[in-house]
Design brief:
Rossmann fold; about 700 residues; about 30% helix; binds beta-D-galactopyranose; globular; 19 helices; alpha/beta; TIM Barrel; seven-stranded mixed sheet; nine-stranded parallel sheet
Length: about 700
């Protein structure tokens, strides 16, 4: 239920307003995309992760005044402060946090509280050692880090519920607490304890019902691993690498990974229930870790009002700009709505060694990139750099000295600019005609069996995503469960796990007029990670108009690929090749090498009212993906509206009759983009000619 929507609709309950309410509801039965993520008074939230408990009390007022001056209106607090709040079991100390919240309230600032369960107090570990997870060598984690908990431990779940309830009750009426972050960056350790094994066995029993179904689903006939009693099931060893890969059964490993995702979901669900009862007006979110492969964010996101994520692109500047953009599109895809940034690069990053510092303009550019992809709040990690502990070198907006210098001023600039933009941004989101399917089960299958050496799902997707990025096209990364009918073009690269129902959904999408692209390894396995018995690409054979009898990894070998239809140069097939026999599909790229000559590298097939493409190898050159995307967009009737220089990104947010174009220069040199003249630059407040000039790391937001 969309609470802000209800809040805004509250007046409709009064008799005089009923008519207005009904008309508005009829005009727009979809809630505004920013209804949950914007503040009630239409403000974009901007602020910092703040740890007042790390500094003398006397410093607080200075901090809050500086934040206020910077134009910040929100802070996140307390996600690691369990021991400050419950110094010994059942003794609660909320005064310090009350004081901080009151100070923030006096200065008009809101707060998000974290349930502080990511770090257990020392007393928890000492009194209840079973709350620490067990490593695969049978040793429990030693207390002294964080996220070392056993989510199968009933004791830990109970203690976590208690502190969550105590906080929810205590802060229920605190006026400036607007919402909660559950725990912190879920992705706890795999727990090899006895409790975890029993939890896993119970989960399997609930999932499969009978041992017969269980044995079939895991293919336990192989190597005589048939299970005759649920209690015989052990935690599989899913850690192997290289040629031999895992030592455990792949079906067991897939379920073990599903189970590990689910226990995080369950742990969060316990907290969500308590928080919702505490104050139904609060929003609940969680700070996701982008492309982290261990938890299904679709599952974890289910109970949340919206998701947030922690964005540290300076860690890998070379894969910027693509990675942060692709991740943002997945974050928006988790709940198919706008999201928040809960932590973001504020300075050099690292624990032992640190990265370069964000260059002038880079902190601002990173923020605008996320705003452009649907981030409706911007929170920097962290306010002031810690003088103690592991993160002394993970720098905040202020250095160790606490002075408001260049990085602070740049964040303040962003905050003040956001104030000018927010009226235009409210009610807008990214509306994409192109989607890429992003599937956690495929990730988990590949984690045990990559298939060919060096294979990686995120990279398999990025090949296509990056070409769409270069073409300036908005993309949604979506779950395979999402309805595809709103999209013109759907890319489903490397979808190893393809249950029949999902294959049928892709077929229906094409038959009803969609353009589909899929590629190597798609449809190899079913939902149990068992190989399908059909000749590849299985159920997709007819719609793709091809058959694949053989395939192999190329190791160091590569093959030249030619095309009259798609690209001018000879390109190289690397890593892997399907021996694709075209049946009714047209060959769009081919080989001329001895045994590969009869086979196609790329095919295109008109099926029903749509078109289905298949790419049967990995191309070495990015240019292949650029040419291919051009053709796919043309087939799908998706307009290419901008010609972008290298390293410049374009994204569009729209809604409520408004359309905002974001241009972001990821280069440290100037760039310019040709546009239709007469558009308004919202940051500079001027009407533009036929070119937008962008300085190093420059950004433009244009009313289109
Ligand atoms: C994040 C985490 C923060 C902080 C930061 C820097 O992943 O949520 O608490 O640890 O990394 O290491």
């Amino acid at each position: 239920m969309n609470k802000s929507f209800l809040r805004r609709g509250f007046l409709w309950l009064c008799p005089g307003f009923v008519l207005i309410g009904t008309v508005a509801a009829q005009q727009n039965d979809r809630p505004s995309p920013t209804a949950d993520t914007f503040s009630r008074d239409g403000q974009l939230y901007v602020g910092v992760d703040y740890y007042p408990e790390h500094w003398p009390k006397e410093r607080r007022e200075t901090d809050v005044l500086l934040m206020k001056e910077a134009g910040f209106n929100v802070v996140r607090l307390a996600e690691f402060s369990w021991v400050w709040l419950e110094p010994s079991e059942g003794t609660y100390r909320f005064e310090w946090l009350d004081e901080v919240l009151a100070l923030l309230e006096r200065h008009g600032m809101k707060a998000i509280l974290g349930t502080p369960t990511a770090v257990m107090p020392a007393w928890v570990a000492r009194k209840y050692p079973e709350t620490l997870a067990m490593q695969s060598n049978g040793q429990r984690y030693t207390w002294g880090s964080r996220k070392d908990y056993s989510l199968s431990s009933g004791t830990y779940r109970l203690l976590s519920e208690r502190i969550t309830r105590a906080m929810a009750e205590h802060f229920a009426e605190t006026p400036n607490v607007i919402g909660w972050q559950t725990d912190n960056e879920f992705a706890g350790p795999q727990d090899f304890s006895e409790t975890s094994r029993i939890d896993f066995q119970d989960w399997l029993r609930r999932k499969y019902g009978t041992l017969e179904t269980f044995n079939q689903s895991w293919g336990t006939h192989f190597w005589g691993h048939i299970i005759r009693d649920w209690a015989e099931i052990t935690i599989p060893d899913c850690t192997g690498e290289g040629m031999w890969g895992i030592s455990g059964n792949p079906s067991a490993c897939l379920d073990w990974r599903r189970f590990n995702s689910w226990i995080n979901y369950r742990f969060q669900a316990d907290q969500v229930k308590i928080l919702r009862a505490g104050n139904p007006d609060w929003f609940i979110t969680h700070n996701l870790m982008g492309l982290n492969p261990t938890i299904s964010y679709y599952e974890l996101g289910r109970d949340l009002d919206f998701v947030s994520w922690d964005n540290y692109p300076v860690l890998s500047r070379s894969s910027q700009p693509y990675a942060a953009s692709m991740t943002a599109d997945l974050m928006r895809g988790v709940k198919q709505k706008n999201f928040w940034i809960m932590e973001q690069t504020a300075g050099p990053l690292g624990w032992g060694i640190f990265t370069d510092t964000p260059m002038p303009g880079e902190i601002r550019k990173i923020s605008y990139q996320q705003l452009a992809h649907g981030a409706d709040a911007q929170i920097w990690f962290r306010w002031r750099t810690a003088t103690a502990g592991r993160e002394q070198y993970w720098h905040g907006l202020l250095g160790h000295d606490g002075r408001p210098l260049r990085r602070y001023r740049e964040a303040a600039q962003v905050a003040h600019e956001y104030r000018r933009l927010e009226k235009m941004l409210e009610g807008t989101t990214v509306e994409a005609e192109v989607a890429i399917i992003y599937d956690y089960e495929t990730i988990w299958s590949l984690a045990s069996q990559p298939g060919y050496a060096g294979n990686n799902y995120a990279r398999a997707i990025a090949r296509y995503y990056n070409a769409l990025f270069r073409a300036g096209i908005n993309v949604d990364l979506i779950s395979p469960e999402v309805d595809l009918s709103g999209y013109k073009l759907v890319l489903a690269p490397h979808l190893v796990i393809l249950p029949d129902a999902r294959a049928r959904k892709l077929i229906a999408f094409v038959e009803q007029g969609g353009v589909l692209l899929t590629d190597i390894r798609t449809g190899v396995k079913d939902e149990n990670n068992l190989a399908h018995e059909r000749t590849l690409p299985g159920l997709l054979s007819d719609v793709l108009g091809i058959e694949i009898e053989e395939y192999g990894a190329l190791d160091d070998r590569s093959y030249p690929v030619f095309s009259e239809e798609l690209f001018p140069d000879t390109l190289a097939a690397i890593h892997y090749v399907d021996w694709v026999t075209p049946k009714s599909a047209a060959v769009m790229a081919r080989y001329d090498q001895w045994h590969l000559e009869p086979f196609a590298a790329v095919t295109r097939h008109e099926a029903g009212r749509g078109i289905a493409w298949y790419v049967g190898t990995v191309f070495q050159e990015d240019s292949f993906y650029d040419h291919l995307i051009d053709r796919l967009l043309e087939d799908a009737g998706v307009e290419r509206w901008v010609d972008l220089p290298e390293g410049v990104e374009a994204s569009i947010r729209q809604g409520d009759g408004r359309k905002l174009v974001f241009l972001i220069n990821h280069n440290e040199t100037e760039a310019s983009v040709a546009i239709e003249p007469g558009k308004r630059d919202l940051l500079e407040g001027e009407v533009l000619g036929d070119r937008v000039m962008l300085g190093p790391y420059g950004v433009a937001v244009i009313a289109w």
